[in-house]
Amino acid sequence: MTQPDELYHVTTSKKAKAYRHSGYIKSPVRGFTTLMGAMAWAIKTGRKVIYKVKVTSPHKLPDHHNEFGEAWWNDGDSPDFQCVYSGDS
Fold it and tell me: DSSP 3-state assignment of 8?
């Protein structure tokens, strides 16, 4: 199984603001291997912000997967992230 080096993390507007303020996303950072997987999760959960996050110690989650992507979590804080979608604009 090949481990991803980046994930698409779905979050709330409130948490996105906290990430920008602190400069990192606190561990564990969960995300999907594809943007489409993250978008499907965002619709399901009502969350409006998606970040592309660099990861160093990912582990595959036993659940949360969908037909568009696999779900993983990263063991460690993630200081390298970029907003790829915000429904709050």
Answer: strand
Chain segment 25-60, per-residue pLDDT in tens: 999 999 999 999 999 999 999 999 999 999 999 999
Q: Which amino acid is at 46?
A: G
The DSSP string of 24-40 is SBPSSEEEESSHHHHHH
- H or E segment to which residue 81 belongs: strand 81-86
Residue 54 CB partners (closer than 8 Å, separation 6+): 5, 6, 78, 80, 81
Tokens 């993390």 locate to: 9
CB 71, CB 65: distance < 8 Å: yes
Determine the Cα–Cα distance for residues 53 and 74; give it in Å rounded to an integer: 10
